[in-house]
Amino acid sequence: MDLLPSILIAEDDERTCILLQSMLESLGYPIVGTAGDGMEAVEKTLSLKPGAVLLDIGMPVLDGLEAARRILDQMLVPIVVLTGMSDDATLEAARALGVQAFLLKPLASKEQLRAAIVIATTICDRQRADAERIDTLSTSLESTRVKTMPRALGSYGLTRRETEVLHLLAEGKANAEIGVELGLSPRTVEKHVEHILDKLGVKSRTAATRLVADAGRRKR
């Protein structure tokens, strides 16, 4: 039998927090801690690393949406948002952040709570698998770019990242497009381009692209 995930309860209303604790304990879920405001929810999630988080959207200090954003920026964890609001804008904002499940307050039953936690953990598992596949694909693409760059350019002392940027420059991509593909800011891409031009001894992107093309022809 699979172990149930540990739960962090982030709820500022004491009575609701006690009710959630009672429901979770009756369902067999271990509780790793509670948080009374959004900042505490972020700090305890990152330090305690619970298996799932129950996060009230109307928290003091930081609201639930901002707390969820900060948590998911640092780690991928199942989050069930608790809210008394059912407006589409709030739910869509939470979904856009990567929140996996929602529960409207007041809770109807502990089975409803269990279902939300199961949904959140299942979706989170899929998100982790997708992230791993993307990382593997990105690594493969980066390796391919380095291997397919003409050997004649190896003498210029380009770093691996500069080689990737140069490859995309040769494909005619703009800094913004390169940044999206490599996960870099436009400013970082711009600095890489400056270093590439300096190392290649050319003054423009066009000249760098021409150098790549010439090296490719010599390779053939």
UniProtKB/TrEMBL annotation:
Residues 6-120 form the Response regulatory domain. Keywords: DNA-binding, Phosphoprotein. Coiled coil: none annotated. The modification 4-aspartylphosphate is found at D56. The keyword rRNA processing does not apply. CDD domains: LuxR_C_like (cd06170). This is Two component transcriptional regulator, LuxR family. It comes from Chthoniobacter flavus Ellin428.
